[in-house]
Design brief:
462 residues; alpha/beta; Rossmann fold; 2 domains; ten-stranded mixed beta sheet; seven-stranded parallel beta sheet; 15% strand; elongated
Length: 462
């Protein structure tokens, strides 16, 4: 059974969810007690019986820390608490009263093997004072294992920015729901492993984490066309299109035509591009991929025009995005079926400008403006649809930062689209499968290697 995709909430959305819980009869103190229990459970599971130092701030995040200290002490853990000062909210004051141990000054605290950062968490909007940032960095560096409560102190919750230098944590316990900072860079790389602590709040929203796809095993009635016919259009650099075509056929497409290039697996069908309009006028084609290695000359423009006029589901990548340009984006909204665009950050900026907001906000805006599915690639890949929904992928292998991996991704997405998936689902499945193939490939792979690991990734998703 596949796990239900986990929502990703901004700080304001999380506060609204908490307010709904309070309006329904759950007190702030009860929510804090649940949060503290979740923190204590995580510290106990991941830190064992090692001594614990909990750093508490003045707000409710600090209150969670005082509650966690109480529960850990009840379990027999050796717990110390250090704070920036006295708590400043009613619930945090009550939580402090429930802790019967001493409270040390943050700047004078000595390290402990397990460190819990319960200083500020979600909603921070300004850099940490040096009086807080310096001891936090010192104590995290000296700990064997460091846990952040909700988000590491010093991160911007909604856009993943670093408000100040932030230590790297081994574990972040997201309270109630994932936040954008847990998945957007550069913040995500400081969070370590992220787990969600259930505090009894119902959460939902338009953004969620990418989950593993549920693929279908071909049935007895299936054949090469029902499993999906992909047309890949090559250009002046045929190797890139060949990578895409190879990935498409390895990802389970029943039939892949490579127009304008040779080589690759013998199962690929090679066709010329002289009569491209006629070749694309084939009702059996489930997806057309164009862009990898296409070039930007007059012939490339002709081939792109044929693809746009084909009426087939489109995947546009690389050079196709450059040729499309800002003017051509208006054509996408007029297509009968939404196209899938797969820009990296440079291509995205060239097409859509450098708008304000988080990567999620900017990608959603681009999808709405074009009527297309946007796969905004990177270490924090975001997928957005014209209806305002967004999906953020979990962290993938950093070894994907090598030439050609985007061509592979485009081919996998094309295979998923050709087999009948709707556009957003196909984009998500492609991103997941490429990441899983990269994990299986291990370090220092080249893009050519990825295709051979796709069957294993697909087998795990059946």
């Amino acid at each position: 059974m596949r796990q239900t995709p986990r929502p990703i909430l901004t700080a304001a959305q999380m506060r609204a969810a908490e307010e709904r819980a309070i309006d329904a009869g759950t007190s702030v103190d009860e929510l804090m007690d649940r949060a503290g229990q979740a923190v204590a459970e995580a510290a106990w599971r991941f830190g064992g019986t090692r001594p614990v130092l909990i750093l508490c701030g003045p707000g409710n995040n600090g209150g969670d820390g005082y509650v966690a200290a109480r529960y850990l002490k009840q379990r027999g853990a050796r717990v110390r608490v250090a704070a920036t000062g006295e708590p400043g909210t009613a619930a945090a004051i009550n939580a402090r009263r429930g802790w019967d141990g001493p409270v040390e000054a943050l700047d004078a605290a000595e390290p402990a093997p397990t460190l819990i950062d319960s200083l500020f968490g979600t909603g921070l909007s300004r850099p940490l004072d040096d009086a807080v940032a310096a001891p936090l960095a010192r104590l995290v560096a000296a700990a064997h294992f460091a846990i952040a409560v909700d988000v590491p102190s010093g991160l911007a919750t909604d856009d993943g920015a670093l408000l100040a230098p932030v230590p790297h944590f081994g574990l972040t316990l997201a309270l109630g729901s994932l936040k954008p900072a847990h998945r957007l860079q550069p913040a995500a790389s400081h969070c370590g492993k992220v787990i969600v602590g259930d505090i009894g709040i119902v959460t939902s929203g338009d953004c969620h984490e990418l989950g593993q796809p549920a693929l279908r095993v071909p049935g007895a009635e299936d054949h090469k066309y029902s499993r999906g016919l992909v047309a890949v259009i090559a250009g002046s650099l045929p190797g890139a299109a060949r990578l895409s075509a190879t990935a498409a056929i390895r990802a389970g497409a029943g039939y892949v035509r490579l127009h304008g290039a040779t080589g690759g697996p013998d199962a690929l069908v090679h066709l010329a591009t002289d009569n491209l309009d006629t070749a694309l006028d084939d009702a059996r084609i489930g997806a057309v991929l164009i862009g990898p290695g296409l070039g930007r000359d007059a012939e490339a423009k002709r081939r792109l025009a044929a693809a746009l006029a084909s009426g087939k589901p489109l995947i546009l990548d690389a050079d196709a995005l450059h040729l499309l340009g800002k003017v051509g984006l208006k054509r996408l909204a007029k297509l009968d079926t939404p196209a899938i665009l797969t820009p990296h950050s440079g291509e995205f900026a060239a097409l859509f400008g450098k708008a304000e907001g988080s990567k999620v906000d900017r990608t959603v805006d681009a999808a709405r403006r074009t009527g297309a599915i946007i796969v905004h690639k990177g270490a924090d890949t975001v997928i957005a649809a014209p209806d305002g929904t967004a999906i953020v992928a979990p962290p993938a292998s950093s070894w994907l930062s090598t030439a050609g991996t985007g061509d592979v991704l485009a081919g996998v997405i094309a295979a998923m689209r050709a087999r009948g998936m709707e556009a957003t689902e196909a984009a998500g499945a492609g991103v997941w499968l490429q990441a899983d193939a990269a994990r299986r490939a291990g370090p220092a792979f080249v893009a050519d290697d990825l295709a051979s690991y796709l069957p294993g990734a697909i087998a795990a998703s059946l």
